[in-house]
Design goal:
The complex is a heterodimer of chains A (110) and B (114).
Chain A lengths: L2 E3 L3 E5 L4 E8 L3 E9 L6 E6 L3 E5 L2 E6 L4 E6 L8 E9 L5 E3 L3 E6 L1
Parallel strand pairs in A: 2-11
Antiparallel strand pairs in A: 1-3, 3-8, 4-5, 4-9, 6-7, 7-8, 9-10, 9-11
Chain B lengths: L3 E4 L2 E4 L5 E7 L5 E7 L5 E7 L6 E2 L6 E4 L5 E6 L8 E8 L9 E2 L3 E5 L1
Parallel strand pairs in B: 2-11
Antiparallel strand pairs in B: 1-3, 3-8, 4-5, 4-9, 5-6, 7-8, 9-10, 9-11
Classes of the chains: A mainly beta (110), B mainly beta (114).
Chain lengths: 110, 114
Amino acid sequence: GQSLEQPSEVTAVEGAIVQINCTYQTSGFYGLSWYQQHDGGAPTFLSYNALDGLEETGRFSSFLSRSDSYGYLLLQELQMKDSASYFCAAHSGNTGKLIFGQGTTLQVKP
Amino acid sequence: NAGVTQTPKFRVLKTGQSMTLLCAQDMNHEYMYWYRQDPGMGLRLIHYSVGEGTTAKGEVPDGYNVSRLKKQNFLLGLESAAPSQTSVYFCASSSGLAGGRTQYFGPGTRLTVL
């Protein structure tokens, strides 16, 4: 079957760095995306990795290792507004067909 | 530029009733998707479309039908609603370039089936 595993909850303090890991098992793997969702609202795109290595976008970075079927999202200089759910999603093929993980709830404390 | 819009925002149905959810996008995107999200879960793909007039099944297509008669609209139909279809439904769209790498989501439709 196709599945993604990520921790259910992570807690960190404001200003800290947090890493959210994701392991995947999918057929036709094309890349790994990360989405943020606040309080059940619309998910918003954060980053995408098609190749091995690190992609950096401001305070957020994402990493992919295809050989290990593993990726992570790194959030730096945490802010209270970063409290949200974070989902990794594997692209199955190149038509944007996504398989989502169950999400990691990040709580940022003062 | 409204992005992706969904109609309605909330709906309550009785078991066996039918309804259609409408998704519209004004970004001229080729690809469109319907997902459902259950409490504490990730999103699961129901159906998707890679262009006007085309549709394909996702992970959980049973009990749903879709149509993409116009490029900007993607309709999701429930012919005979069941309590198991109580969920939040999200529509998304993406450009055909780069294999639909970035998906833009609508605000969701909260559906309750009694």
